[in-house]
Amino acid sequence: MTDTPAEPQAHAVRINAQPGHASIIIDGTPLPAGTVTGYTLQHDIAGGLPLVVLHTRQPDGTAFEGLARVAVGIADTPGDIVTAFLTQIDPAALENAALNRDDLGHQKYDLTRAMLRQAAAWARGEQ
Description:
The strands form two sheets. The chain has a three-stranded antiparallel beta sheet with strand order 1-2-3, with no helix packed on it. It has a two-stranded antiparallel sheet with strand order 4-5. Helix 2 (91-99) crosses helix 3 (110-123). The chain folds into two domains: 1-73, no CATH class; 78-123, no CATH class. It is elongated. By secondary structure, the protein is α+β, with helices and mostly antiparallel strands. It has three helices and five strands, in the order βββββααα.
């Protein structure tokens, strides 16, 4: 078994793309024509190195052939994401929107319920 690096390794990538065609070279080696069916290039300037995801064509009957390094994660914890969302909410706007909701009831804590529903609607991009 070989050692797996703790951090993703950087590779030199050159993409020459025109409509309907792209040639991709990794560490000075061109990928065979027809292997790559698409690619995604993502770069967060503050986050460091760009990320290139290659979409490849595999031989018939093969789900995947080759080596891969897979990393799954998010930059912030769910708590960080929720905190950032909640701190940008205008309390007056939230209260007014909750008071104008059609589903606002007249029982104990119904205003709080309406405010939580409204905040959830805003999180989904709804008005």
